[in-house]
Every structure is written in C-alpha cells, then in structure tokens.
Design a protein that fits this description.
210 residues, alpha/beta, Dihydrodipicolinate Reductase, domain 2, two-stranded antiparallel ribbon
Length: 210
Amino acid sequence: MKPNCSIQSYAPVLTAWKEFEPYEVVATTYLAISGAGKTFKDWPEMVENLIPFIGGEEEKSEKEPLRIWGHIDEEKGEIVPADGPTITCQCLRVPVLNGHTAAVFVKFKKQPTKEQLIEKLVNFKGVPQELELPSAPKQFIQYLEEDNRPQVSLDVDYENGMGVSVGRIREDHVYDWKFVGLSHNTVRGAAGGAVLCAELLKAQGYITKK
C-alpha cells in the first residue's frame, strides 16, 4: 500500500526539512479531478467550479504523513505513527485534470534561513535516489524562484511526473515559513509511485522470485 496522493506535494518537503524540527503544519490542498478517477467529460459540473469537500481526504492528509515518519513495531507487526508534527488540512477539488497543489504553513523548533530551506530541498535524496532505482527522479525536489511558480501547466511533468516542485518560500507573520508545492497525482501519487514502491521493496529484499 503506497502513501496517499494528496500528501505528495508537501510531505516530501517536510521530510527534507526534518532536521529543523517542524512541529505545526497547516496545509490546504487543491486536488485535480483525476484523483477521483474522473475527466471533465464525465464530470462536467467541475468545469469552472470548486468543491470544498472530499470525503475522508482531510483525515488521511493529516494522519498519513505521521505513519510515513513512524516506525514498525516488529512484535505487533503494525506501524506506530510519529508523534509529530501536528498537521491540520483542508482539501478542495479544483477544475484541473492532473496535478495536486498545496499551500502550506510551517512552524519550526529550530529556525532555518530561506537559503537553508532551499538547500535542503534541492539536495534531498531519499533511499530511491541513493539506490538509483529505475523510476526514481534524479532530483526529487526542485525549487522555482519565480513568484508565479509552480504552475500545473508548466511544472506538473517535472522529472516525468515523479518529482515535486516547490516555490514561494517566504516568511510568515503567524507561522515561521510558508510555501507552495505541486506533484503529479496520477504519476507520483498513483501508478508511478506504486512502481517505485515495488522497485524499493525488491531492492531491499522484500520481493523475491519463488
């Protein structure tokens, strides 16, 4: 079972910033209609529309990152979620075919500079990058300096849809920092991510020939 597509635009970013100890996160996600298995042809009411409710999505978006950052209790054979950060989320369905966007606010226990935040993003390597798995993006996260990026039409296919695009990192007067993230929900978030998970399981010896 792979992680939920809705969290791909911000959970990897928070993972890259783990050493700064994020402890409180507010995220609003703007989710493409293909995430519901729809197109504009069979969901015409989504044209020029926004629906501010997706059943169960907010609960998953708040809890699932903690499962990813948690650990496995070997005796019980179950995942023990991480204690934090605390995440609160709203999920909106928007008239976009592919691409989930997130607007995120973060509080840190350790205070990073903008330069440190960007450096951690662009140099972040997960296990798939370290193992050079076939489906792994070469550079997992890109940072875009332009004020109007990331955009779905320009950036959703970054690294063949397997990368994450981040922009608009700036200080906030209520939280410490805020940013916008974008990921491809049917590639990184679904099919491609599932393939990458299988490649990782095989590389780590969990999948073997019978």
